[in-house]
Amino acid sequence: MRARDLGIIIGTLKPGPLNAITDVRGVLVGHATLIEGEGPLVVGKGPIRTGVTVILPHDWDPGREPLFAGSHTLNGNGEMTGLEWVGDSGLLTTPIGLTNTHSVGVVRDALVAASVAGRNEVGLWSLPVVAETWDGYLNDVNGQHVRAEHVFEALAAASGGPVAEGSVGAGTGTKAFGFKAGIGTASRHVGKEHGGHTVGVLVQANHGRRERLMVDGVPIGREITRDEIAGPDLPDDTGSIIAVVATDAPLLPQQCRRLAERAGLGVARGGGGGENDSGDFFLAFATGNRSLRAEDDGQAPISFPLQMLNDDHISELFWAAIEATEEAVLNSMIAAETMVGRDGIAFHALPHERLVEVMRRYGRFG
């Protein structure tokens, strides 16, 4: 179940065929989901509610064929590895991994191992991009249950087509606005010249206070309160969100950075604020210059032929990223089901019928 299945339309731009990040040609997504045990927390044993999500920027080795990329940090109480090189070089050279806070290291190391296995060359180096949010309300996060084999599983499962959402992969143990959330995705298609361009977004949603939740401008969090749908008493918790933005437009690194910034506006439209305790990292990459590769003999060319989107036409992409981010967050909640984790803590699903009733009362269904 997704927002549009309920008749909820975010924004005015048209989504891609799948309304997912995989609408950007070549982008692949894979998950490994870990759910085990119930009852009281025993560190190292569980309960386990976590996982790994990987995003492959195209269907080849990004170490051999990097893409232009840029990032933005709204609030830095979190981690996304590899950003120093992305910022300095303007290039994305690895898959992107998402997981829980205390498993970043193992996911990073596993992505290095996968790179070595695929291209075991003298002098090979890899600086993987891995981001996290803290899922310790439901998961035995200190038990560090994610292992390299789970990363390899997610890589093997990576594919185009529809993307599983909600409590899967890195979103297994996350929540948003006091409801169960997880992984969400959406896309937008803009422009008419040369077929236009697609912008896709995938989020790991783990942020927001209940009373601030907005859906298409409707104050859902003030209408569906904790008195109606119970949740853990976490009035000061705001959590974190990761957003990965992909586009097939021919953007250069500075343009990718600007596109990544707009994901923060999509988060804000839904009620997220980048609070002090939040880790909000946004990464954008562009597949429109698929020529940044070494020659077959391993010798890098002296120069590359490039294309660049005229900045006079980039605002449409900005709005695409804003709308897709807002809808991806909403999809992460609508797709998620109620989950009980460690010590019996439960995050309940956002109730679909009640959501539609409130949206109708505010005139969103005509």
Report on this model:
The strands form 4 sheets. A 6-stranded mixed sheet has the order 4-3-12-11-10-9. The protein has one domain (3-291, 313-359): L-amino peptidase D-ALA esterase/amidase, CATH 3.60.70. It is built from 7 helices and 14 strands. The protein is of the alpha+beta class and 366 residues long. The model has no long low-confidence stretch (mean pLDDT 93). A hairpin with a 2-residue loop joins strand 7 and strand 8. The radius of gyration is 20 Å and the shape is globular. 23% of the residues lie in helices and 23% in strands.
Q: What is the compact description of this entry?
A:
The protein has 7 helices and 14 strands. The protein is of the alpha+beta class and 366 residues long.
Taking all residues together, what is the mean pLDDT? Answer: 93
Helical percentage:
10-25%
What is the alpha-carbon Rg in Å? 20 Å
CATH homology group: L-amino peptidase D-ALA esterase/amidase
Q: For this structure, what is the CATH class? A: Alpha Beta
